[in-house]
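Note to self: user wants both folds in one dump. Writing first protein now.
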Amino acid sequence: MRDPAEERLLADLAEGREAAFAELYDRFGRSMYRVAWTMLRSNTDAEDAVQNVFLAILRSRKLLTRVENLRAYLFSIVRNSVLRIASRTRAEQTARQDIATARNSGTKNDDAEWNDWFSKALAALPPDQREVLSLKIDGDLTFAEVADVLRISPNTAASRYRYALEKLRALMKAEQDETRTTAAESR
């Protein structure tokens, strides 16, 4: 049996009452953040994880009256958000390592040649992906901030970023393969 106060909070959330969202944040925001931070070890990523919880609540608020255990429900959303962020972070780290490896592998003779190639690779990206990549890397914005700037959802910002990194990784691999083939043919 649910606590009557929790029952009321869920009903208010389902109706979209702003005060209910504030109460939910006051009651659970700090502990959700601590859990996310403990798992991610990043303030920005932990904040993103908690924000994702509130976006999920907002999107599915009509279904909240079916929730039996609010605390468990919230922390399962936190956990899922943390897992997505951790996966994305690993993919970003791999892409950065790939870029560093390509840059230091001798496949390009100097920084000017590398910068020229990289500029062309960026230009090959679709504009929406290039824009997200630039805001995230050059602007050092979170996905939530990128989403605000571009008026898209944070999930859309994250997926565009991921696709951009995947395309850059594929372009770098193709460039490395071409360079190796050219070097082998010239022997």
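First done. Writing the second protein, which came from a different request thread.
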Amino acid sequence: MPRSVNSVASRKRRKKIMKRAKGYFGRRKNVWT
């Protein structure tokens, strides 16, 4: 994942998604497709 200028805003918005995605990646790998 490349670093963006407003990484702080992106991280805050994706924090919930990342927490959810972390659990999903364990069961299914194609969660983003």
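Dump finished. Worth passing along: The radius of gyration is 11 Å.
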